[in-house]
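User: Modeling request: complex.
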Amino acid sequence: MLVDLIQNTLDGLMLGSAYALLALGFTLIFGVLRRANLAYGPAIMLGAYAATWVSLRFHAGFLVLALVTIAGAMLAGAYVERLCFAPHGARQSRSGDAAAIAAMVGSFALWMQLEELATLWLPKHLYSFPPLYDGPPLALGPFTLRVEYLAMLACAAAAGFGLHRLLYRTRFGLAVRAVVDHVDAARLVGINVPRVFMLVFALASALGGLAGYLIVAAHEQVTPMLGMWSTLKGMIAMMLGGLGSLPGAVVGGLALGLIEAHSQWLAGPQYRDLIAYLVLFALLALRPSGLWALARRRPEPAAA
Amino acid sequence: MDEYALGVLTNIGLFSFLALSAYLLLVAGEMSFGQQAFFGVGAYAAGIGTAMWGLPLPVACVVAMALGAAAAWLVGLPTLRLRGLYFAMATLAAAEMFRILFELFHYQRTIDGEPVGPDGTQGFRGIRWVLERGIEQETYLAIVLTVLAAVLVVFAVLERTRLGATVRMVGEDPELAAVLGVNVDRVKLAVAAAAGALAALGGALYAHHNTYIEPRNFDIMLGVHSLAYALIGGLGTAFGPLLGVALDIGLLESTRVFRGYRMIVFGGLVAALLIWRPRGLLDETVVNRIARALRRGSA
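Assistant: Request completed. Predicted assembly structure:
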């Protein structure tokens, strides 16, 4: 019983690190642009499909596949940014909600487009994908750990740490924070705001591509569900942790993983999803500022 | 009219209810990812009503609308104070809970030696009230369009009343509305319930057109589509959502020109359209201009 509990907790943390990586990219875009990018998952999916194609054609190694996934996700991300986010003037208070909704619905339209493009390219329902590591899982006493998931946890930690350094220790990070604080003031002191938006978007897409590669390598398969799955899990993790906060994204991802692992073990897959959505709904209704703010006992206003 | 065209037209009519439901909430300033849940509630409720309890379809529709309104009211109560993405995600979570509950919902009764009723993920077969009454497809299309026309008349009348103006004001500036003495929470809750009833009505008619429903029909894709329909058609008039549905289902599916590439064409079209017109084709400005031109014409 205790062994199961600990094993489930470990599994949950591993699964959660994948969600945390997805949520980091989402949070970066939302935190800076104040826009939700629904095409985030499908862009990742396109990258994963490109890597699958490369793997089928050339039997490339894992480093090539990871780079192809990241490059594909960034390319698709750039397309989404140009068509849905650049024209709608992010973060302007005056155009307000209408522009945010237009950008989001636009990104949904591109979701449909990217998904159809990917399935036209590789039309089967399932493609196998080479794993990151072929050997047996690590055994730690009675517990097992899959190497892929350890890599994921390490990447999530590194990405969280690296992003923090980037935002608080570099000139670019300073520009990003200035834009977040006050976009008009940032423009007045000479920051090229559209360029900041574009770079943030590229960074988030690269993170998404990395997450996508690790996820498909861990699952050892690629399906057309990947796009929707990534968007939903990333958004849920982001909302659970607290919208727009980077530590929140990590906390939210890990929390979602833990909730899923334990409820799946207790009640099966249907109830797993039901419980995850129930927790999200209850948290949004009661404490919309999310788990991270709750943990720090600093209530933040729920303004969108 | 051939069967294919009939099917396309009926679908345009049916999904218009859902698009109108999303439109109603957008006008009141809220973006919902979850209207498909109430569409599903309506479909299941009306299906159970006619196929299992032997109710006539109009009665089943009324029951479905009441249940849809109640469900939307319950979801709205704790969430309507949220704004933007918070509300959208809360409604998404609620709608996915409804979909999973449909998957867990088993309630069957043996009728004429056959089990009838919702059977979890296996879906709900045999909603045959329309077939059993010998109602032709043309007639059913006429029924759907008549109900839709009635809904549009209600919208048109409400747009001209104080209530309609209040709803638009709440959508555009809730703080100002509150200062002017409008009870914003109550207006939003009423709008949410009405939108739920509208979606449920569409779902009830949808179930009787398809004769078969399953939980997968009511997933997030349906919800976001209805939101997109409302937005590309335009937020200025209730005809906007209809235009959105007609553009997608009618123009792209029925012409079959872009077969296999439909989403690539539609997706690009929508994104480009939203750059040009962020509040849809028939936005407030266009609607006002048309209304003025009509008035001048009649004067």
